[in-house]
Amino acid sequence: MAAERPTTLRGLAIEALTSADLDAKRRLTTEAGERWFARQLGLSAPGDPALPSRPGRPEKPDLVSPRHVPRRSVHSLEGRIAMIHALAHIELNAIDLALDIVARFCGQPVPRSFFDGWMTVAMEEAKHFGLLSGRLRDLGSHYGAMPAHDGLWQAVEATAHDLTARLAIVPLILEARGLDVTPSLLQKLEEARDPETGAILEIIYNDEKKHVAIGAKWFRFLCARQRIDPARRFQELVRECFRGDVKPPFNDRARAEAGLTPTFYRSLSPLSS
Ligand SMILES: [Fe+2]
Ligand SMILES: [Fe+2]
Fold this sequence. Notes:
The chain is an all-alpha fold. Helix content is 63%, strand content 1%. Helix 3 runs antiparallel to helix 4. The site of one fe (ii) ion has 6 residues, from helix 3, helix 4 and helix 7.
């Protein structure tokens, strides 16, 4: 007899997070979001499956140190495939990062709209991964064809104890970094005459502004509830929980559109005075 499917948002998010079959992960993520938005699901129940310490992943790609991930010029087909592969890997992690926020922090005293926001993010990340892995196949490759790095999941482990820290690091550092680097990637794709990949990156760029905005909104909400200054708390949390660099060039305009003003991040950069 098949195991019973979960009947709560948390249960369905954990089911998708645990899935090592990536088509199933995308399908389960979308299903969880659709059923949540149709208001068919409660938030959690004692019989929910356990939250895994790591997301389900296929055997390939091999996970290696960032230094061993191939980097080539996007002006060659090989280089573009490597770039799209790296972006697909980020999007796959982003699906699991959003699901983990929903599942791990569902006991927090936050409004239902908090979970609306993160399920919107999870569903869009699933769309992004689908678009990029489809593009890899169009170019004669596939997700898993080359190694990928494991840095993103470390951010989950470093912030598993605290929702405010999680929001500081995942949407407001990592996803905001995506806003900084995408315009120059779009430019390079234009030079390389690859409008198909460019069109996918445009979709992702616009959605990611929304993800940073959702992160900023709930980060400010949690700080306001504790009556603490959000920019100062952000800087403390980044120093405590994030080992990477926060460095320019910053896409100030896109960041500001998402509610992340320079007072948050300028003083974290080693180049700021
Ligand atoms: Fe994304
Ligand atoms: Fe995102």
